[in-house]
Amino acid sequence: MNFILYDGVEWKKLFPITLTRPVSEIRLGLFTMKERWEKYLGKNVENIITQSFLSKKYSQKESSYFKDILLINSSFLPNEELIQILFSLKENEGIFFENKIIAFKKTNFFFKKEDILSFPLEKYKKIYYVKKVIHIQYPWDIFINNEIVLKKDFMFFTKGKKSFSLEGKNHIICKDKIFLEENIKANNVVLNAQLGPIYIEKGVKIMEGSVIIGPVSIGKNSILNIGSKIYGGTTISTFCKVGGEIFNSVIFSYSNKVHDGFLGNSVLGEWCNLGAGTNVSNLRNDYQKVTVWNYEKKDFFPINLQFFGMIMGDHSRSAINTQFNTATIVGVSDSIFGYGFSPRYIPSFFLGGIQRKKKFLLIKFVIQLKL
């Protein structure tokens, strides 16, 4: 049997994070969605079905015909109940959560995008329903669920494994909830796992005065600058450089937040960089629920969240002392600078800040007057 992950309707809802990747490459907890499915299945994923412009990088084969397969919606996270049902599926049987399809089995399948996005219920011989599963539908679901996923991943992945010891003079609290891989350099740091586990991969360097309060995951070869303050619900991926204060956030690989400044309830894509003194507001002054930019409706809409910092797409960066407002959406390859708070929605390939937006609106108004 071959396992295939596919992008459902969630792919568009997860912009700007999925503008440059399939849903299966989203990271939260200790793993990407694909890595987590492979660990639970005990087998490699045979292929990724995604948008055509992403297939060249992420798909293993170009063929649209598949045989003896289980198709799995990448936006769902596996659990024990789901895996048990999955391996019992027979031809044309599917698994649903509420009215959303998680997986189905086919002996012969010719892929058409519309078939997967709206596969009708009557085509299934039998339907199984799961009562509880984590579903990542919007980019803010990443940081909302990260704390609970970190705890589950830690229990699943460290079972039966032995942690390395940490050399140097360090203050370790709840050692049994801390798992360390080899070649970690740390001295005069605090690791506190009272509120949740801490997982640190190989080659990580933690400089003096840093404090980590779990649940937290630090990816391999990442560097924590002097006096870093890392709070629970945070995932820092591989080859990152971080500093300052980070709370309940997910930072994808090769991204930097090296200097002082606050980042909370946020997601940073790959190859992002926050300049010195960059701060992200995660709470409105009036304590109200936030509104967030919707890429499909091209407008802001309300969501049931009070704490929301920023979602930043890949390859975007901010200049020194940049101020991001609550619930800001930043596209891909932006360069943000200038005085005042930046706009709460910044489209991809944007250069500048609030002053450029005002100038653009003024020019547009003048043109309209002339017409």
How much beta, percentage-wise? 25-35%
Structural class: alpha/beta
CATH superfamily of the largest domain: Hexapeptide repeat proteins
Cα shape: globular
CATH fold category name of the largest domain: UDP N-Acetylglucosamine Acyltransferase, domain 1
The tally of strands reads: 36
Radius of gyration: 22 Å
What is the makeup of the main sheet? 9 strands, parallel
**CATH hierarchy class name of the largest domain:** Mainly Beta
Contiguous runs where pLDDT drops below 50 for at least 5 residues? 360-366
Distance between the termini: 64 Å
Number of domains: 2
CATH architecture of the largest domain: 3 Solenoid
Kindly report the spatial arrangement of strands forming the biggest sheet: 10-13-16-19-22-25-30-33-35
The tally of helices reads: 7
Helix content: 10-25%
Query: What average pLDDT do the residues reach?
Result: 91
Briefly, what is this?
The protein has 371 residues and is an alpha/beta fold. Residues 360-366 have low confidence and may be disordered.
